[in-house]
Amino acid sequence: MSVRASDAGVLRSGIAVEWWSIGWMVVEAVVSLGAGVAAGSVALIAFGADSVIELISAGVLLRRLRMEHAGGRASSVKAIERRASATVGILLFLLAIWVVASAFRDFVVHAQPEISLVGLVLAAASTVIMPWIVATKRKVAVRIGSAALKADAACGVVCAYMAGTLLIGLALRALFGWWWADPLAALGIVYFVVREGWEAVEAARGRTESCGCCD
Q1: Quick check: is 14 in a domain?
Q2: Residue 49 and which of 33, 88, 90, 148 are 20 to 30 A apart at CA?
Q3: Which residue ranges of the chain lie beneath pLDDT 50?
């Protein structure tokens, strides 16, 4: 199936913004996990682990866009999308269980995570960058009529909420020394992780467009 030149240009834009999104998620994952381990922050580790899981979903969507740009049939990647969504859902639920257990442990032992300036900068940057990525994806999704890319843009909104929750937790820890702000922020992130996991499971069942996040 051939792709019109005008559509091909927009698809290239979609592929480009997906690469930008993947690149930023790599930064989020590496920095959050590194800073989280160094500071002993459950919230930062949870944010980084979620970014790693989202990379799986983003990779599948990128493959779908590239296939469409090459003139291939999107139906051929549907089975892969559903398997990937099922895997993402399981990983997200496992992550939620780990975060809840770790957060409650920190509450019990009064764990004192270190103040992470790197984490603060990353969270602040994410609250600015993710809305831009979301807006760009939505524009491209409308132009090419891609429900999958539109759903992926909705995932970015969830990521922005996560970043905001993380930022508040880290800021409270840094400004007031409230040790409990970190595990509390982690539990706040769990809410979004569980919603992501449920949406991924629904996508695996073919009830929604797969993106690994919620609308």
Answers
A1: yes
A2: 148
A3: 1-5, 212-215
State whether the Cα torsion 6-11-12-17 is positive or negative: positive
CATH code: domain of residue 37: 1.20.1510
Would you say residue 211 lies in a domain? Answer: no
Residues 6 or more apart from 139 whose CB is under 8 A from it?
none
Q: What is the pTM of this model?
A: 0.82
CB distance 98 to 53 below 8 Å: no
Q: Is residue 210 part of a domain?
A: no
| Residue-level pLDDT at 77 | 61
Q: How far apart are CA 57 and CA 55, in angstroms?
A: 5
SS3 letters across 151-206? HHHHHHHHHHHHHHHHHHHHHHHHHHCCCCHHHHHHHHHHHHHHHHHHHHHHHHCC
The domain in which residue 103 lies consists of 5-204
